[in-house]
Design goal:
The chain is mainly beta. The protein has 1 helix and 6 strands.
């Protein structure tokens, strides 16, 4: 269980040992039905990516711009978990 920096929320990461895995979702497209992922806001997406790549994270696709609001990307983190990064543009 991790607490968010603002102290108002928590994020739980779990791994199920049983029952046996029915389907492996780790290589499914980011918009697959029922696909689990988590997204974090970051101050500088390029700096964050550089740090995470040094720790083994792999960029999925590319960093994209959503209108004039966000820069977004997905990375594969530990155990193939899909993690989204969003940098709000001012």
């Amino acid at each position: 269980m991790m607490r968010t920096p603002d102290g108002h929320s928590r994020l739980e990461l779990s791994q199920f040992l049983t029952p046996t895995i029915v389907a492996d979702h780790r290589n499914a497209p980011v918009n697959a039905l029922g696909y689990l992922r988590v997204m974090f806001t970051v101050d500088d997406i390029d700096e964050t990516l550089e740090k995470l790549r040094k720790r083994g994270a792999q960029l999925v696709g590319e960093v994209v711009r959503y209108q004039d609001v966000y820069r977004l990307c997905y990375i594969r983190g530990p155990g193939g978990i899909l993690i989204g990064l969003a940098q709000e543009l001012s």
